[in-house]
Amino acid sequence: MLTKITKADKSQPEVVEIHCHKISDEVKEIVAFVKSRQGQLTGTIDDRQFEIPVSDIFYIESVDNKSFIYTQNKVYETRQKLYELEEILREKRFIRISKSTLLNLMKISSIKPALNGRFTAVLYSGEEVIISRKYVPELKKALKGEA
Amino acid sequence: MTFKEFIMSRIQIFFFLVTMILLAQVLLGNAIEPDRVLYYKDFLGTFVMAGLCVLPTFVTYSKKELTFKQMIVRHIVQLVLIEGIMITLAIMGVESSSQKLLSVVLIAIVTAVIYALAIFIMWYRQRVESKKLTELLKNIQN
Q1: Do A105 and B136 touch (CB under 8 A)?
Q2: What number of CA atoms fall less than 13 Å from residue B24's CA on the CB side?
Q3: What pLDDT, in 10s, does the model give residues A80-107?
Q4: pLDDT value for A147
């Protein structure tokens, strides 16, 4: 696929246009990446595609090489890998809390102790997720604004 | 937790145990044998006891993070091992057979209480820390 960048006039809106022979998985991934940079992620439920505002996401979990986006009451599957999402969402107050979970700091209601140096994050949805001991220092840094 | 960090935490536990065992010895000694004379070498026993009690804590070490159930099981194994060591030491240390049973029962109870206290202190420290984290969290959310 050729990559072409054209400078647009400031009076014109910025556009990402893809010309392709067919809407392949690769094209879908590019679209998902562009949207994620704009504060939206693309997720699917039963093969139906949805745009999910980042501010609605509670956490993202990776299970068996698949990534799942959790909102207040829905779970979407996404093609993007957890490490890609971590990179994209770093500036949007998302933090890695375990090997397989990215958590939106804005959706945590409180933090309580768990056994063995771990913590439990209680979310505004009532759900609880474990903050792995390994990622506690990173969480502290993020909360203190040092990350 | 790396093995080095684990060793450092064991050293902290060792000194905590030395303090608690000394305290238990003072209280129990006053209650059972208030007139007994102690020599300098007797204090060495406290360190040996604390060292022997730290050894079973190695069962809680794991490179991978343990699940809640695995952790509970390992804590139970740890307590059983500590109780075993303490009771053995009590049997070896008390000469009078009439006092042996009483000593074993008391040592078993005191060990369990100290263990529960140690777990409670660890949990309490984490609770204080989690409250601080929640406050920091509220600051960035508002």
Answers
A1: no
A2: 22
A3: 899 989 988 888 889 999 999 999 999 9
A4: 65
Contacting residues of A for B60, CB less than 8 Å apart? 116
CB contact under 8 A, B137 and A132: no
Contact call for A143 and B140, based on CB within 8 A: yes
pLDDT of residue A36: 67
Copy the structure tokens of residue B3.
């093995």
Q: Answer yes or no: is pLDDT of A77 > 70.
A: yes
Q: How far is CA B122 from the centre of its chain?
A: 12
Q: pTM for the complete prediction? A: 0.68
Q: In what order do the strands lie in the sheet with A108-113?
A: A108-113, A119-123, A128-131
Give the DSSP H or E segment for B138.
helix B97-141
User: With an 8 Å Cβ cutoff, are B130 and A105 in contact?
Assistant: no
CA angle A35/A41/A30 to nearest 5° reads 45
In chain B, whose CA is at the least distance from the CA of A120?
B130
d(C-alpha B33, C-alpha B48), whole Å:
21
| Closest chain B residue by Cα to residue A134 | B1
Give SS3 for B10. helix
Q: Please state the rounded mean pLDDT for residues A130-136.
A: 89
